[in-house]
């Protein structure tokens, strides 16, 4: 196979994909091979090239689908609301609560929240979707004194940012954030419906009350790199 042939096929398919809405099923390897008169190995290389460019995603047993990455900007001024940020980007977010239990606050969490180790904290685990695609999964640590009845609040409101505002009476703002690109382990891969070892963002964020600078909750979130483009913005924008 000529090294450039699969790239030519990928370029042709890329131009066609640009006109399709995300989630559209497209030809698989066999159909691509037949259409372009190449071996299945060449067709597979072309589809893999599209995957590397985050233009398609393959779902085991279902096929190959067009993909669109959503920008998730992280700034010092934007409210740390996952759902609102995605809506602003034109996506349709949905969040499913996996568990919400009150536990003694671990030492590492207490250190980041400037709280007493062993004090009551809600450990909230959720999986979030964008346009019905599993996009993030993780844990949020919310001191029980901030929102005493968090499980009840989550039954009527999906957004933690909104709950903290309405029930806790605080305005969340980012205090500290750290992100790294990691390989998904088995648990993360299962939650995000991706293969083990697939690239994911791991984002840790401490959010504080904008008025008092008191830390109010900690987020530890795994984000699919093929679904979300994490964008960091710092300082004043160009004039």
From TrEMBL:
One of its GO terms (molecular function) is DNA binding. The keyword GTP-binding does not apply. SUPFAM superfamilies: Chorismate lyase-like, Winged helix' DNA-binding domain. Gene3D superfamilies: Chorismate lyase-like (3.40.1410.10), Winged helix-like DNA-binding domain superfamily/Winged helix DNA-binding domain (1.10.10.10). Residues 3-69 form the HTH gntR-type domain. Keywords: DNA-binding, Transcription, Transcription regulation. The keyword Repeat does not apply. GO terms for biological process: negative regulation of DNA-templated transcription. InterPro entries: Bact_HTH_transcr_reg, Chorismate_lyase_/UTRA_dom_sf, Tscrpt_reg_HTH_GntR, UTRA, WH-like_DNA-bd_sf, WH_DNA-bd_sf. SMART domains: HTH_GNTR (SM00345), UTRA (SM00866). This is GntR family transcriptional regulator, phosphonate transport system regulatory protein.
């Amino acid at each position: 196979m000529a090294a450039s042939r699969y790239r030519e096929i990928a370029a042709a398919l890329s131009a066609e994909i640009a006109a399709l809405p995300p989630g559209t099923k497209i030809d698989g390897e066999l159909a691509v091979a037949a259409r372009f008169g190449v071996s299945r190995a060449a067709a597979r290389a072309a589809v893999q090239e599209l995957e590397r460019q985050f233009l398609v995603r393959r779902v085991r047993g279902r096929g190959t689908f067009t993909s669109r990455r959503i920008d998730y900007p992280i700034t010092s001024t934007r409210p740390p609301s996952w759902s609102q940020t995605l809506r602003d980007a034109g996506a349709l977010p949905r969040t499913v609560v996996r568990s919400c239990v009150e536990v003694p606050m671990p030492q590492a969490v207490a250190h980041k929240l400037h709280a007493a180790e062993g004090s009551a904290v809600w450990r909230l685990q959720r999986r979030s979707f964008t346009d019905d695609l599993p996009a993030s999964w993780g844990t949020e640590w919310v001191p029980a004194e901030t929102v005493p009845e968090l499980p009840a609040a989550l039954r009527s409101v999906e957004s933690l940012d909104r709950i903290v505002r309405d029930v806790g009476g605080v305005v969340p703002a980012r205090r500290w954030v750290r992100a790294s690109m990691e390989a998904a382990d088995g648990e993360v891969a299962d939650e995000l419906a991706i293969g083990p070892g697939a690239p994911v963002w791991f984002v840790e964020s401490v959010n504080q009350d904008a008025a008092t600078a008191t830390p109010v909750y900690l987020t530890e979130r795994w984000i699919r790199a093929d679904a979300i483009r994490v964008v960091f913005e710092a300082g004043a924008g160009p004039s």
